[in-house]
Amino acid sequence: MKPLLIVMSAPSGAGKSTLCDLLLQEFPEITYSVSCTTRAPRGEEEDGVDYFFLSKDEFARQERDGLLLESATVHGNRYGTPAGPVREAFAEGQSVLMDIDVVGAESVRRFVAGLPADDPLRAGFVDIFIEPPSLDELRKRLVGRGEDSPESIQVRLANAQGELDRAHEFTYRVVNDDLQVAYRRLRDILLVKGGEL
Known about the structure:
Elements: E1 5-9, H1 16-26, E2 30-32, E3 36-37, E4 52-53, H2 56-64, E5 68-74, E6 77-82, H3 83-91, E7 95-99, H4 102-113, H5 120-123, E8 125-131, H6 135-145, H7 150-164, E9 172-175, H8 179-193
Parallel strand pairs: 1-7, 1-8, 2-7, 3-4, 8-9
Antiparallel strand pairs: 3-6, 5-6
């Protein structure tokens, strides 16, 4: 597979993280882009593995110094993607999987569009939106995770509607109604784009 810059977005609870994990298990040539954030770690999240947890000042410094490929504010916290590791992975023949929100995806899309036509990041760019079967199903999933307060779930559902309204901006859309079917669809997109099908 030629190196791909895989941007995946979805409303919280749509199953994107599970699909990303399946890709990483099957394809050792895909590396996960670790984002940085100003939010506090959740559960057993580890710094440098799940996210780079930064202070607001450090995040602002990296953003100001042009060290982030994209950055956005989501649910009141700052998120971004360090540019250096993405370029390094491509140089080593690795694809990079970015798990980011729709605003971040728009930033990366804009960044990539401004690159020369022969830039590997532009040639390998693929953006995919993972959709829940319905907002009602999304509510059930969020409640079932047991990680968020009822107020937080309401905020996430309101944000989900806004994200679903932007799904048309993505080249590919995959509905995650059945995990195995959604994964096969996702896998086929990447194999075609990477030149293996």
